[in-house]
Structures are given as structure tokens and as C-alpha cells.
Amino acid sequence: MVNTYSPAYDRAATLMPPLVSPSEFRYAEPPGIGWVRLKFRVLSAISTELAFREAWRMFCTPRRLPRKKWEEAALATARAFRVPFERGSLAAYEWNPKGQRTVLMVHGWEHRAAFWGVFVDALVRAGYRVVAFDGPAHGDSSTGRRTNLPQYGRATQTVANHLGEVWAVVSHSFGAATTAGLPVVFNQGQGLPRLVLMSAPGNTPAVAQRFADLLHLSPKVLARMARHVREQHGRDAESFSLTQAGPRVQAERVMLLHDCNDDSVPFTEAQEVARNWPGLDFRPTNGLGHNKIMRDKGVIRQVVEFLG
């Protein structure tokens, strides 16, 4: 395969403000963040371990957002089923069961299967069987309130094994990182014909650093988080990064879509992934941010064409 990344993407990105460098990139600050930062200053003064435990709890606990009306419409035509997983089960949904090829959708942090509604409609019209699931600690899955990247990856692996033959995976943000970061093995190790990654964080330690910057965590707490990953999973956080793990993914064709003005994951991370992933089809977008990319008609049309 020929790597379709081009340095021209780097030059073009400079014409699409307001791009920022990784050192300047910041999360939008939520209300009440000052009190949280104060709590961590106090905890850190008492004990690095206490501060780490609370930081790790927050880092691994997604909010359960209220269900929106349009989500009900997205699930109205789906067949709901459950997939056993660890000490609970994953809520899963299937559209167009008679479709000739199966596309698995893997959502991002604090999203759920229903968030794929617009995408699902287009894929069903194109003749695909579509399956999506609520990740661990998300949606209606009964797997506890906390999750992390390795567990989410295991959940994706479990669903993939349950489905059998999978033609393509379309994944967003944290879901993209889990699919490619382990990486998940599809079709009994025979590989995946098509993989689509959207708004994917390319550098796992950078995700933790942005979290630490938001909460003003001390370097000692951040280092303790990194040590915890090594102790729990037998590998450094960096090894889950798409710049390292991604090229090991067994997929015939891989496409990465990332918006130049993504306010959650810097566009520079997508550029770095593209530089380090041979054969990657890198397609920057402009003006869609982190989440609108999932609903944009132009993006969906590109993905449907790519899957064919």
C-alpha cells in the first residue's frame, strides 16, 4: 500500500486557524473547576497517593449523560441484544440484519451506541448490517461505573468475537484509540478489510497530560498514574498510542479523519499518526470539531465510499 499522508496536509493546516500547538492546547474549563483544583492541591499536600487515587477515579469515570430524544429514534429500528462481558454485559444493537457485510461502530468517551444514529442510517441505506454497543461504564451496559482503555478494548474484542466475520469498523475518539491501541484482533486473526478512525487521540500520555493540566495535578501524581498503568497492564501508556500500536493493526485499508480545529484532541496528534502509519489514508476536515464529524454528510459519504 502507498501511504497517502502528504506534508501538504501540514502546510494546509497552517491556513486553517485557530490551530494551536500541543503546549498551548487546553480543554474548555468546566464550571466549578476551581474547587476541584483546590481539592487536589490539598490532597497532594497530604499525600501523593491520596491525590493519585482520586485523580484515577475521576480519569476512569465517564458521566452518564441524560438520554436525548433523537437517541430513541436512532434505536427504534434496531434489534437490542446483550453480550456477556466480565462481571456484567454490554448493551448492543443491530440494524439491517440481512445486510451482506457487517460494520461495527465503536463510540467515544461519554457517548453510546445511539450517538451513531445518522451514520447508521447511511450505512443501512448502503446495504450494510450495522452493529453498535455501549462501552463499559457507558449507556445501558451493566459493567460498573469505571472503565479504561484496555477494558474498553477487551469489550470491543468480545463484541467482535460474538459477531464473527466483520467487514469494517468505524470508530470515534476513545473508541478509535481502544480499537487500534491494543490492537483488537478481528476475523480470528485474518485481519479487517476496512478500518475508519475519527478524532482519535494519537498519543496516550498526552491525554493524561491534558487531564493533569486541566486539574493542575502535580508531576508526582501524573508519574504515579503512569506507574499504575505499567503495574496493572504490563506495558507503558505510550505503547497504546496510535503512533506506536497503530501500524501493528491488521487491516487492509485504514482511513483517519480529524478536524483541524478539534477542541478535544489536537490536530497535531493526527498529523503525527499519519507520519508514523504506513498506508494510512489521512483526510483532514475543517470546521467540524470533535463531535460534528460524526454527523457531517460529507464525512459520511466519504466513509461509505471507503467501505465499498
UniProtKB/TrEMBL annotation:
InterPro entries from the UniProt entry: AB_hydrolase_1 (IPR000073), AB_hydrolase_fold (IPR029058)
Which PANTHER family does this one have?
ALPHA_BETA-HYDROLASES SUPERFAMILY PROTEIN (PTHR43689:SF8), HYDROLASE (PTHR43689)
Reading the lineage from the top rank, the first entry is: Bacteria
Please state what the protein is called.
AB hydrolase-1 domain-containing protein
Limits of the AB hydrolase-1 domain: 103-241
